[in-house]
Amino acid sequence: MSTWLLTGGAGYIGAHVLRALRAAGHDGVVLDDLSTGLAERLPDDAELLRHDLLDPDLGKVLADLTRRRDVAGVVHLAAKKSVPESVALPLTYYEHNVGGTVAMLRAATAAGIGRFVYSSSAAVYGETSAEPVAEEHPTLPTSPYGETKLAGEWAVRRHAEAEGLSWTALRYFNVAGAASATLADRGATNLLPLVMRAVDTGTPVKVFGDDWPTPDGTCLRDYVHVDDLAEAHVAAAAALEEGRSPGALNVGRNEGTSVLEVIRAVEDARGRPVPHEIVGRRPGDPARVVADASRIATVLGWRASRGLAEMCAARS
Ligand code: WQD
């Protein structure tokens, strides 16, 4: 049994990673400032360290933790993740996402923790036209959010080379679904929560363009169930404990799903129509973003097992 430190562990994805670690016989200690994370997502017996990564005392927090518990490594999920907000507040995103990663790397190394799983994103590829997108594809992020995710990868890679850490950067494609209502994504920016909200409120969800070069005219994305994503973190942790450093890995299904297909899947799952309206394209949207997920399958033996129906299922 290993214990991992989960920064951002009270977040939508982090809480699922804790759940997956425990299901695999491991455990996690959560470090979260609860600025967007929710303590209610955590099991009652989970250890929560309520701290800001930019807190000057971060090193002392980790030193105290490693005196009390044998920490196998860090899963660094804490970050700000809104693309439009990053455009409005770039320095806040660089400070928290890049500065927070640097602070975490320093504190982890000072505390003798030598393994680092970094939460990255498909946003590092920017407006790619390749389908599917492999890890070697040029990384040309088009938003401050994507830039901070890529800069964080560079910091992790270079620090690992300098200090001999084992590391991986998991590039999430479009994460969706939830194990329960409590664990659901509360952010109202990504497609699936917005479609669910349209069913619940009757307020139409906007479909950003139906004139794209795709089969039904709406954008394609690679949606991956958050439980599959969480299990990818467990597989990554195991690889790092074997002393491997897989580097950057795409986490997706290698399957493109359109906006209208997501809407139909929610209608099937909920047995009710999804009010929606076609509007103009959203600036910066690529027509297609689909992962080549062959490397993570080869390197970690991980493949997604859940489909769109599970992601769209109503949750109790
Ligand atoms: C998905 C699709 C929209 C809302 C971003 C980040 C990425 C990751 C996921 C963190 C697109 C369409 C959306 C709506 C719509 N985040 N859409 N109406 O933009 O693919 O990726 O979030 O890692 O890094 O870049 O996700 O959920 O915003 O959009 O038609 O009201 O749904 O055009 O095709 P996106 P999204």
From TrEMBL:
**One Pfam family for this entry, by name?**
Epimerase
Q: Which reaction does it catalyse?
A: UDP-alpha-D-glucose = UDP-alpha-D-galactose
What's its EC?
5.1.3.2
Which principal EC class is assigned to this enzyme? isomerase
NAD-dependent epimerase/dehydratase domain location: 4-252
Question: Which residue spans traverse the membrane?
Answer: none
For the keyword DNA-binding, the answer is: no
Q: Family per UniProt?
A: Belongs to the NAD(P)-dependent epimerase/dehydratase family.
What is the designated name of this protein?
Answer: UDP-glucose 4-epimerase
In its UniProt entry, the species of origin is given as Actinomycetospora aurantiaca
